[in-house]
Design a protein that fits this description.
This protein is an all-alpha fold. The chain has one helix spanning about 5-55. About 60% of the residues lie in helices and about 0% in strands.
Length: about 90
């Protein structure tokens, strides 16, 4: 076996892996693009319906009455450390 056969075999061994990665990337890219386009279309339809009904935009569940994001408390309750039994 000469060096040329070694590199040829190495090349042909890597090709299936590269093909699977490329297929996986293409499928995920298609799913993400479809989701993004669907969200844009849904937002556009919602905006049109709100304009027809003359309704304001709904607040997100994390917004308060003024439309400001909820503020987290400065101190969070600390849980006691679990006793692992190690001494």
């Amino acid at each position: 076996m000469n060096l040329n056969d070694y590199w040829t075999n190495a090349f042909w061994s890597v090709i299936p892996t590269i093909a699977v990665v490329a297929a996986f990337w293409f499928v995920l890219r298609s799913i993400i693009r479809a989701d993004r386009n669907e969200r844009k279309a849904h937002a556009k339809i919602e905006q049109q319906l709100r304009a027809e009904r003359n309704q304001p935009r709904q607040l997100a569940s994390t917004d308060d009455e003024r439309g400001q994001p909820d503020q987290l408390p400065e101190r969070r309750k600390r849980l006691p450390k679990a006793d692992t039994g190690e001494r």
